[in-house]
Amino acid sequence: MAQAAAVAKPPAPPRRRRASATPRRLPYLLIAPAALLMLGFIAYPVVSVFYYSLQEYNPTKPWRNGFAGFDNFVHAFTEDPLFWDTLVFSAKWVFVEVGLQLLFGLALALIVNQTFVGRAVGRALVFSPWAVSGVLTSAIWVLLYNSQTGITRYLADVGIGSYGTSWLSDTSTVFPAAIVADLWRGVPFFAILILADLQSVSKDLYEAAEVDGAGRLQQFWNITLPHLKDAIVLSTLLRAVWEFNNVDLLYTLTGGGPAGETTTLPLYIANTSVEAHNFGYASALTTVAFVILLFCSIVYLRLSKFGGEDK
């Protein structure tokens, strides 16, 4: 009887194994190498800049090195006129460059978005300057602006200007000359981003607008521009940050001259650290530039309502 009861007893349910923690941790383990590299190559330099901004650090004068507190910042805001001059020029440079690049980039994007013979070749020619490095772009324009073999010589041949004129050494022409050189490389950036967004606009919207009697200008203002809003906001913000930090082109073209007319704040920081070896003061200027860019970026994104829907 006991044996029969033992046989009739249902088997015990199998014990559930605890889920291994390894599959849950696997994504974090996979991204850990990249995270550590980012921490080493990004976080450490940023923290180092903040640290040295509070120090008096000049390898050529080690007896003066030590904790300086906020003296570097006080010197920048109250005793260094070059800081304010370079900051004002940086704002001017960013405003003019980004505005013109956006205008010409939008126009080019609208043109190459149309259907015409040789459109693929036209797009390749429009976008090709963006593939050229900043230093190579500067070298190209240095040759073009050369007083002996560049543009000014050929203009002098037809009676425009005089021989031996250098636009990069004249305070009245150096700014427009530098603007044109950077436009050549910066316009394709806007054209690429805006063209990519243009191709996602539904053609049904334009057909419906034509049926309602809307002209080309009305379609552009009421359909194209609202659709391009986020692309324009993002591209202008990115390009503004890049233009503010532009060093390679201006350094190669003008070296900040003549007479400091084209010295931006980042170029002034580079000269202060590399040439004067005043790394503490250069770090303080870098910190100020970082705070300015961060504040302006936040305000710009808030005012433009980036990522939100227009009401």
Task: Give your account of this protein's structure.
By secondary structure, this protein is mostly helical. The protein is 68% helix and 1% strand. The chain has 13 helices and 2 strands, in the order H-H-E-E-H-H-H-H-H-H-H-H-H-H-H. It has helices at 2-8, 22-52, 71-78, 81-112, 119-127, 134-144, 151-157, 174-198, 203-211, 216-244, 248-253, 265-275, 279-304; strands at residues 55-56, 66-67. A two-stranded antiparallel sheet has the order 1-2. Helix 12 runs antiparallel to helix 13. The radius of gyration is 29 Å and the shape is globular. 24% of the residues are buried.
Provide a quick synopsis of the model.
The protein has 13 helices and 2 strands. It has a two-stranded antiparallel ribbon. By secondary structure, the protein is an all-alpha fold.
Structural descriptors:
311 residues; mainly alpha; two-stranded antiparallel ribbon
